[in-house]
Amino acid sequence: MRRSATIHIQLGVSMNTLRLLIPVLCSLVLAVPALAAKDELIINGSTTVLPVMQKTAENFMAINPDVSLVISGGGSGNGIKALTDGLCQIAMSSRDMKANEIQLAKSKGINPVRIPIAVDALLPIVHPSNSVVQLSADQLRDIYAGKITNWKEVGGADKKIAVISRDTSSGTYETWDEKIMNKEKVAPFALLQASNGAVVQAVSKNPNAVGYIGFGYLDKSVKGLNIGDLKATPESALSDQWPIARELYIFTNGEPKDTIKKLVDYLLDPQKGQKAVLEVGFIPLPKK
Q: Are 176 and 232 members of one domain?
């Protein structure tokens, strides 16, 4: 009897209360594995693709509460490297993979599969107060190469041009390098930014700046420039008339399966993921 009394005091509850608590405690214990079993996908890469994926993830997780999507930017090159190193399941990229990247991935047992998810019209931007409304591709190249240094040389005010560019790990930088620079090097005095958003912010604060961004990042704080007589529109991008149009991608390790396939199917659905593409300002894939 003394031993039973001691146990009763240590528990601090009556036997009747304990009987009521046991089912509750058992249900909590059973719930822990269910919480731990939540399916997590890690997605990394392009800051251009980032808003598309964030918007899609918000909607996707709302109807799939058992799935968690962990998304981060850092640039297309970083996303591709993370996929190659097995640090993410999906890489976001605003450019295609290079031959050496594919070779490295395969040497590590990774089979990258490219999936287009949207279309982008990369465009040059200036401060809204800038009187310049258009530049030719040659003028853009010469500005970024440091051969044109004053806005008066291209019909603007007598002000020194502040050149804003992207860092070299960016797919946006590589697209600009390929389609505009034509093997010319970006001038060393160019101010490098790590994201589209940072470029918008830098240009919006400097009346003499020029930069370039993905179509979905254009807002009222900056002004998009025409290239020659062409204006960046969904139509000019889809028809390949816009000289800096491109596809936006995700890469997976092998053909998508299970939860990854579920997400990819959602991304490509015209009424779901493609609707999210439009909502964040990018261009949905053409209908087949």
A: yes
Is the model more confident about 287 or about 229?
229
Output DSSP code: residue 223. E
| Residue 204 counted as domain residue | yes
Residue 27 belongs to what domain range? 2-35
Over residues 127-141, the pLDDT tens digits come to 999 999 999 999 999
Domain count, the chain: 3
Q: What percent of the chain has pLDDT over 70?
A: 87
Burial tier of 42 (Cβ tally within 10 Å: 0-12, 13-18, 19+):
middle
Per-residue pLDDT tens for 144-153?
Answer: 999 999 999 9
Which own/partner pairs from 131-138 qualify as long-range (CB within 8 Å, at least 24 positions apart)? 131/155, 131/156, 131/157, 132/156, 132/225, 133/223, 133/225, 133/226, 134/225, 134/226, 134/227, 134/228, 134/229, 135/225, 135/226, 135/227, 136/227, 136/228, 137/180, 137/227, 137/228, 137/243
Write the single-letter amino acid at 34. Answer: A
E strand or H helix that includes residue 169:
none
